[in-house]
Design goal:
By secondary structure, this protein is mainly beta. The protein has one helix spanning 2-23; strands at 30-43, 53-63, 68-79, 89-91, 96-98, 104-120, 134-152, 173-193, 196-207, 225-239. 9% of the residues lie in helices and 53% in strands. A hairpin with a 2-residue loop joins strand 8 (173-193) and strand 9. The longest helix has 22 residues, at 2-23.
Length: 240
């Protein structure tokens, strides 16, 4: 089922690219493939659950001219060592602070989105496609995100014994779903050769999803899933 959603999103993206291709100038139209690596930091309520991580992926782009680009991207990110596995909680009437020695808290996010890149500046600054050219752009996009958050091996907190049994754990807790999301940002393409560019970008990402609250750890519900990332990629352009 999840692969069907990714496929539908990808086909819609390719249909959009095909429509633009049909109306574009055949002499100017260019395709590109590329790869990206990003530093990602959770913000808002998601920052209470996880720290920074890496985000990696690939892109397929079509530039009908020199002023805009349509981009289809896939990215994957994995958050490890999250809370509540790393937090302590009070146990019993004594309020002894107890941790989860075998606790695991993690989340994996996969995304397929379509981005529009609008290059800004005068005609000369948006031309590109020759060595040492720089093109600045604004980016807006949206698509499907699939996330799976798992908490397991968490010690059961409501035991009756005076000394807590650390081997008595709760059932695994899983939050997962497909959700829509959007991203906004800006960046710059720096052409090394007429066919290869370094792409640097920063953006904010918002996913319409949530993670359940965990009150024993004083963690409220997370909604939406929000991150900021800074990334660098390489694009290889070729003519249609």
């Amino acid at each position: 089922m999840k692969f069907t959603r990714y496929l539908v999103c990808g086909l819609l993206a390719l249909a959009l690219v095909a429509a633009i291709t049909a109306t574009g100038d055949a002499q100017e139209g260019r395709w590109a493939v590329g790869g990206f690596a990003n530093y990602t930091k959770p913000v808002l309520s998601l920052s209470d659950r996880f720290g920074h991580t890496g985000k990696y992926g690939a892109t397929l782009s079509y530039a009908p001219g020199t002023s805009s680009t349509i981009e289809v991207e896939y990215h994957r990110e994995k958050f490890d060592n999250g809370k509540p596995a790393s937090l302590k909680f009070p146990y019993g009437s004594s309020g002894t602070m107890t941790g989860n020695p075998e606790g695991i808290s993690k989340m994996v996010v996969n995304s397929v989105v379509v981005n529009g890149l609008l290059f800004v500046g005068d005609e000369n600054s948006t031309r590109g496609f020759k060595a040492n050219d720089f093109r600045f752009y604004l980016l807006v996009g949206g698509g499907y995100y699939h996330y799976k958050s798992v908490n397991k091996n968490l010690v059961y907190p409501n035991q009756a014994a005076d000394v807590i049994d650390l081997t008595l754990t709760m059932d695994e807790q899983v939050d997962k779903r497909f959700a829509y999301g959007t991203n906004l940002g800006f960046g710059v393409e720096a052409f090394v050769t007429p066919n290869m560019a370094i792409d640097l970008r920063a953006r904010a990402n918002f996913v319409v999803g949530e993670l359940r609250p965990l009150l024993i750890y004083d963690l409220d519900v997370v909604r939406p899933l929000s991150t900021l990332d800074i990334g660098a990629g390489v694009k290889f352009y070729f003519w249609r």
